[in-house]
Amino acid sequence: MSTPYQNAPVSSGAPVSATDYDGRPVLVEPEVRRLDGAVREASVPPFAPPVTHGSLADLPFENAEAAPGAVALSRRLPDGSWADVTAARFAEQVLAVAKGLIAEGLQPGDRIAVMARTRYEWTLLDFAAWAAGLVTVPVYPTSSVFQTRWILHDSGAVALVTETAAQAAAIGPELQHLPDLAHLWVMDKDHVERLAEAGAQVPDGEVAVRRGMLGPDTLATLIYTSGTTGRPKGCALSHGNFFAEVDNAVELLHPVFKARDEEPSVLLFLPMSHVFGRMVAIACVRARVRLGHAPSLAADDLLPDLAAFRPTALLTIPYMLEKIFNSARAKAEAGGRTAVFDRAVAVARRYGEALEARQTGTGSGPNRALKTQRSLYDPLVYRRLRAAMGGRVRYAICGGSPLGRRLAAFYAGAGIEIFEGYGLTETTGASTVTPPLKPRLGTVGWPMPGTRVRIAADGEILLAGDHVLRGYWDPQAGGVVPATRDGWLATGDLGELDDEGYLTITGRKKELLITAGGKSVAPAPLENWLRQHPLISQVMLVGDGRPYVGALITLDPDGITHWRQMIGKHPVPPELLTGDPELTAVLQRAVDEANKLVSRPESIRRFAVLPVDFTEWSGHLTPSMKLRRAQVMRDFAKDVESLYERR
């Protein structure tokens, strides 16, 4: 860790200082409140004072004035190399594109939609749109035509920027149903550059005037939820929401954003259509952390980008960390080093748990023997793992779903500290996060500074703070309708707070399975545990109204290919493997291990292996990798019924 933290008592009211008189970060512990002996509420005061004027549109220009020659971003070139962009140059580009948007007739408050993968132009357009007084509306590049039309219509977008000509062509036939949409631009056709040229005659002062009209309460973006249970809703997030989220995150996650021993940098590869990716991009601009964009999550594309960019931190989801781990083990197995790898994993987990014990005051930390073992395996295993991420990664912020204690301990022991978080689109990103130097593996940490977390009587997590959205977009009601009741947002998630204010996610309120015997089962713990298995891609528990819990399992293509090669099994189509006795035995052992986590009424009694995977393209996953359970139940109804047939 780059700088030592100190503990500080919690205070209430005004923001607390995030650093002491030496400039060292201070760790402020949550204040907890109990009801009937159980912790029902935890809160941490804000580290950063609230922003009372200005907007996100000001950030590029403030950076250009304060440090014009500093590298603000790095832009990926077609040949895979990276070109640095200074703060002054980025501000010039933002100004030019903002003037182009004004020249095209867009008015303050107009909505402009962006449909693209994670790339430099996304962040450029975001800040340019804000500088022109507009509201950005992200659209997942993988969205169907129907989904895209719905978002464009509901938001009343007057302009759409797509990444490719194919995306623009797909929406073409829908234009007759979108009377508000007057502009359609394509990144790959250099339309962003043409916008900058089109605004050459617009005075700089026009942008300054529009920026001056914005404040913390001004609407910044409409982000549509991915819709696991129904039609997406537009979450109306203000400039102030982002400031409250970003400023407190930067102060809390001091090692990520303010490391003193090396220049921090972040390679963003998560979708910018998702609030997590947008929040990270804004945080990097706010904290003047060098930011790069990688458009593809495919290993063949992402690994070269990591190697060339060499970030110090990653913003990721559990799925990616699971894939990296499973890939590393498969390579070790193919090279005849399985035993070495597995011993290294065991050592890393013990080491990570020992670090946790020391940091939480429950142990003395790694002993000499454990340190020696870790030193032995570092060049053999851990260093290779870090090299696959670029060689400089020391921190990873992970969200979207629980990572799990085993994997978090392994990465900590391997030299990559994981800050696990929990949040929603409605909370502008994270509402809780693992506190630096005081992790509790398997939890999603403490409330973010400025956040209150409450557990309702039925176990639902309620959230409050300045980062919570203004409301949901409802054009029928004339704009934004409130989303909170008495200041508290009902998340739909279930959780528990421990005595020190750490939050554990136990499931989704709407996803609870009630068996025929009346047992309530939260599927997430078993699903997340099984998904870490190298042969398993996705898992969905079933059993609502049934006599016991069952599971639908899909196979990981890379894992299955490796498994076949290792046991000498000939290549066969996936559908022919679903009943393979050797594979069934391997999966049964995994299920048996997972069942040790729960009581017998909650355990998986039978499972079915499906011949296809759950994907976003098939409609079974959202773009943020969450299960669309109703769709899975409809499409695989026969497989579910087979789990309850008498043998």
TrEMBL record:
Answer whether the UniProt record assigns the keyword Zinc to this protein.
no
Q: AMP-dependent synthetase/ligase domain location, by residue?
A: 62-473
Feature: compositional bias, Polar residues: 1-10
Stretches that traverse the bilayer: none
Task: Provide this UniProt record's keywords sorted from A to Z.
Answer: ATP-binding, Nucleotide-binding
Q: Which domain of life is it from?
A: Bacteria
A Pfam family matched in the record: AMP-binding
Q: Which InterPro entries match?
A: AMP-binding_CS, AMP-dep_synth/lig_dom, ANL_N_sf
Which residue ranges does the record annotate as region Disordered?
A: 1-22
Q: Which Gene3D superfamilies match?
A: N-terminal domain of ligase-like
Name of this protein:
AMP-dependent synthetase/ligase
Q: Which organism is it from?
A: Streptomyces sp. 900105245
Organism phylogeny: Bacteria, Bacillati, Actinomycetota, Actinomycetes, Kitasatosporales
